[in-house]
Amino acid sequence: MRFLFVHQNFPGQFRHVARALADNPQHEVVGIGDVKNIRPDSAALHPRIAVRAYPSPKRGGGQQTHPYLRESEAHVRRGQQLFRAAMQLKAQGFLPDVVVVHPGWGEGLFLKELFPAARHVHYCEYFYRADGGDVGFDPAFPGSLDERLKVHVRNSTQLLGLTQCDAGVAPTPWQRSRYPVEYQSKISVLHEGIDTALVTPNAQAALEVQGKVFRAGDEIVTFVARNLEPYRGFHCFMRALPKLQALRPSAQFIIVGGEEVSYGRRLPAGETYRKKYSAEIQEQVDWSRIHFLGKLPYLDYLKVLQVSAAHVYLTYPFVLSWSMLEAMAAGCLVIGSATPPVQDVITDGENGVLTDFFDTEMLAQKVADALANPQAFASIRQRARECIQQRYDLHTHCIPAWLAFLTQH
Fold first, then answer.
1. Domain segments of the chain: what residues?
2. How far is CA 330 from CA 237, 327, 345, 363, in A?
3. pLDDT at residue 63, rounded to an integer
């Protein structure tokens, strides 16, 4: 069979399944992404995956375009660029049997027209709504009426895709539930998978930070996000630090993540959420025990998880991070926010600990309790890894499920 994967940041969520399909010589696999995101070493993804690029759209909507429609116009332009690149593939004789696309940026808008005989599968990551999700969740960033109205237009690209696709895939049950009821029967729940053979506990793990070596078993609190921002509870974590440091005067804190903004409101030029919330607690904490590591190579990031005594994962009701599942696979004690879709995975006291997203006193106390009596939480850490192995393991569960789903006739 022939498979076409489309993602502006290819391979994105399709890395593992694309590789698995390419392992079978009976399949032909092509991936397409935005040229600015295609890495020079993309050929190393798999020798049998052909990676193509389309030109980045030059612009979205201008000042004369209604603000609600500027993103939609950008999506149309991206969809056109992708369409032209796919036309070249078709002219060269590549006719996919299955097209797998992340529709969130417009790349799937016109592909059904080009490949009408193919089975079109959309990756349904998140459907925006004015209630029950990220919009208006945080009182510190109240949603305006304008934002509430805009989200309905923001979904227009995905809605067009849902009318055209043959099937969809969502990574968690809650993320699937965000989509309109009339389309949910099209959407299966399939996570991309966690490589639990690679992401493992390691009692001998050690991590050197600024000349100091941290080891598994030390009193280390970890926090990881792609970028340090309110959507991932960075402000709540920072506000918990004064109380937590008072409760655990020997604890060390390792924080991993960039200082850009992946989700939510951007600050004025030159400002970052790290600077903002660090200034807020400036005189209340011992900064010698707080270590910002920025973005790390993957294997170094895994060491952070392996030395963790308590791993804090907070999120708005939004997309679930791979890092939470990887932390569980590494045997971390995850203290997570009692928000969806965290609650799709963690049961409080069973395979993790849940805390109120906004209650920094509660967060500090729960982390302190975990540090004070690690043996009492050993079985929770073990069950966390078992949960990921049983439900999200890449090789024994997720990849077989994806292959069966994509190769069905």
1. 2-193+394-407, 206-391
2. 21, 5, 15, 21
3. 81
